[in-house]
Specification:
With 280 residues, this protein is mostly helical. The chain contains 12 helices and 2 strands. The protein is globular and about 75 Å long.
Amino acid sequence: MKGKTIQPYLLLLPAILLAVAFSIAPFMRSLVLSFFRVTQRGDIIGFAGLDNFASLFRDGAFRASIVHTIAFVVLFLPLNTFLTLLAATLTRRKTRHGVVFEYIFFTPLAVSMAAYAMIFSEMFRGRVSIVNRIFGTEMMWLDSPATAMATLVMLSVFLDFGLDYILLLSAYRSIDRSMIEAAEIDGAGGARMLFSIELPQIRPMLLVTVFMAAKDAALISAPVMVLTQGGPFRSTETIMYYYYLEAFRSANVQAGRAISVMMVALSVLLMALAGRKRHE
């Protein structure tokens, strides 16, 4: 019995050691050093308290990045939730040809983010872009602040679509069939079945996908790097792209650590809320 009790922990030990070495320990170091003034080499030169965090909010570029991030979340979250929920709802029943649509909706997970971002960049670049030719327009999608943000939102929805779709589709198909059959016997129509039985049953998973999407949106950086580089006129510069510029381009170690601590705290909060909603 003792061996059976220890075995699961032994199997988990490699993953735990990797998490401690490459995630937890570096974060704890950054957390501690975020309260100190340090050189670009990381040498401590004095205690800063909350000055590193306060100096961030005195920076107009950082405040603007918060506004851009909030704008992105507000645009991305409802659209992503609606489209993934719609796709999962339309394909929730197993049919002969439904597998074709499942493969299509799963496709965004099959190729790397960078590859898709490069494809989007070429599709929306210039007046003679592919998108302009299809719709007969002459818009400079990546050269206008409004359309650049819209393009970034479209790319991000496409990138997140596959995983959220799978989670919601799995939630639909894990509903107890006896509930569906009982409702059918009672004469419940398709709309009544969906809104009174199926959607309430997948609500916990729907909330999980919403919180996960919110976390991804708040931490968006890689699509910005490839598609817009924060432009035009820094209109798509999000918090994490600002972090990239400060920590890696400008070697501002103090600002980088302060931002990383704040964003990790935000991620933990959102995932904790998602876990709580999942078990309610």
